[in-house]
Amino acid sequence: MDFSFRKGILLRFIFFSILIYVLLILVFATLYYTTHSIGFTQYSASFESAVDFKQTIYFSIVTFHTIGFGDIHPMTDPGRLIVMIQSTLSLFYTAVFSGFLVYFVIKRPNDLFSTKNLYIRHRNDAYWLSIRLGNKGRTIIDMKSRFEAWTIVDNSRVRAFQIQREVPDLERILYYDINLDDPKHHKLREALHKAITKGLRLHMKFSFIGNDIRTGEQVAFAKYYDSSDIKFGKTFLNVYSWDANGHRKDFQWKNFERIEEMDDQLQDQFKTA
Fold first, then answer.
1. Could you tell me which residues are beta bridge partners of residue 120?
2. What digits encode the pLDDT tens for the residues 10-28?
3. For residues 225 and 135, what is the distance between their CA atoms, to the nearest angstrom?
4. Dihedrals φ, ψ of 104, to 5°?
5. Where do the structural domains in the chain lie, given as residue ranges?
6. Residue 2 above 50 pLDDT?
7. Residues 20-54 pLDDT 10s
8. Hey, what CATH class is 112-272 in?
9. Is the CATH number 1.10.287.70 carried by domain 4-106?
10. Which residues contact 17 (CB under 8 A, 6 or more apart)?
11. Whole-angstrom Cα distance, residue 57 to residue 27?
């Protein structure tokens, strides 16, 4: 499994976990030492010796991991109380550490994103509403998408358009396009036209669910837009190129939001249609 995308977060988590562990060991070792609450058992070779600070650290580690070798033991009620507190705390610490470690290693990161704007594009002699999707992680398969648009009238949500459909796998880049010249999408085109020419406050949402190709984990994504996010464009700039073996190379994610401008004549044509 590829963990490179989360290496920094994972290393920081391990670092702070070790730091907290060391602090807990030292704090309880100090408590044992200052309260003089632990000593050697009568079966130990050092039975008549006093426990020094290094030995309290040893006992603190043994107690934290609930090993209990028996060479050192609590001798007073405060000592027994400290042992109970430390051993109980160690169970919670181990559970939390293990849980978060599994989360960081297995849980898919938030590496899916979409363009900040919705683009009305003109290609193949038709107008399209387009969103570009990006993925810096593992491929998403079995994707089902939904796009909906609505307005608010008298404090109530009024749906203007909705479409649900399956979309191709999302490897690195995926274009989600709705043909605005298709009669089935007439209501969406009309709503977009009013939003651009008459100031209609249009709210939109694009979402999808799919499965991580490697783990099978279900992945969900959603992005909200409104009228101010509608832009005109032509062709998106390339984010990567292909090598002779058909593999993607030279990724330039800085181009993800970049798009060629649409001719003024085509924009006016959409606005007056």
1. 129, 232
2. 788 889 999 999 999 999 9
3. 19
4. -65, -35
5. 4-106, 112-272
6. no
7. 999 999 999 999 999 999 988 887 766 667 899 99
8. mainly beta
9. yes
10. 97
11. 9
Give me Rg for the CA atoms of the chain: 31
Same-fold call for 4-106 versus 112-272: no
**Residue whose token pair is 């900040």:** 116
Residues comprising the chain, all counted: 273
Secondary structure of the chain as H, E, C letters = CCCHHHHHHHHHHHHHHHHHHHHHHHHHHHHHHHHCCEEECCCCCCCCCCCCHHHHHHHHHHHHCCCCCCCEEECCHHHHHHHHHHHHHHHHHHHHHHHHHHHHHHCCCCCEEECCCEEEEEECCEEEEEEEEEECCCCEEEEEEEEEEEEEECCEEEEEEEEEEEECCECCEEEEEEECCCHHHHHHHHHHHHHHHCCCCCEEEEEEEEEECCCCCEEEEEEEEEHHHEEEECCECCCCEECCCCCEECCCHHHCCCECCCCHHHHHHHHHC
CA 41 → CA 37, 73, 143, distances in Å? Answer: 13, 7, 65
Contact 63, 93 (CB under 8 A): no
C-alpha to C-alpha distance for 222 and 118, rounded to whole angstroms: 14
How many angstroms separate the CA atoms of 50 and 143, rounded?
68
β-partners of residue 156 are 153
Report if pTM > 0.85.
no
Q: What angle do CA 21, 24, 29 make, to 5 degrees?
A: 125
State residue 108's pLDDT score: 64
Identify any residues that bridge with 114 across adjacent strands, giving them in sequence order: 133
Which residues lie below 8 Å from residue 154, measured CB to CB, with a gap of 6+?
Answer: none
Question: pLDDT-based confidence at 102, cuts 50/70/90?
Answer: confident
Picking from 160, 136, 156, 158, the residue whose alpha carbon sits closest to that of residue 148 is 160
- Tokens 């003089």 -> residue: 36
